[in-house]
Amino acid sequence: QVQLVESGGGLVQAGGSLRLSCAASGSIGSAYAVGWHRQAPGKQRESVASINSGGTTDYTDSVKGRFTISRDNAKNTVYLQMISLKPEDTGVYYCYVRLSPMMGRSWGQGTQVTVSS
């Protein structure tokens, strides 16, 4: 397991951009998958984006074309670049790392993203 610390959240106007970072305490270079979930007020947590060890990415439909997930294995950091933000993107964003298919996910503590209209 690794410890994860997210940063980069904040308050932004609709149409603005943010870049979230997720720093891991250990190596994620060979991690099976890394990704981001979010939880909006009063709603269930949902998957936003993920990237596997082969570099294949996956996004929920509502963020396709606006969000980009990437990983810097040398820095043990996962990023989520968000552009054209909408009020419905508001929520707490959590990153995770899954080191292997036989292991569960390690989660960060979350970072708040608030998009004002």
Termini Cα gap: 39 Å
- Structural class of the secondary structure composition? mainly beta
The counted number of beta strands is: 11
Average pLDDT number: 96
Q: What is the radius of gyration computed over CA atoms, rounded to a whole number of angstroms?
A: 13 Å
Largest sheet: 7 strands, mixed
**Globular, elongated, flat, extended or rod-shaped: what is the shape?**
globular
Q: What ranges have pLDDT less than 50 throughout 5 or more consecutive residues?
A: none
Total of helices: 0
**Beta-strand percentage?**
over 45%
Helix content range of the residues, please?
Answer: under 10%
Order of helices and strands: EEEEEEEEEEE
Brief sketch in words of this structure:
The chain has no helices and eleven strands. It is mainly β and 117 residues long. Strand 7 and strand 8 form a beta hairpin.
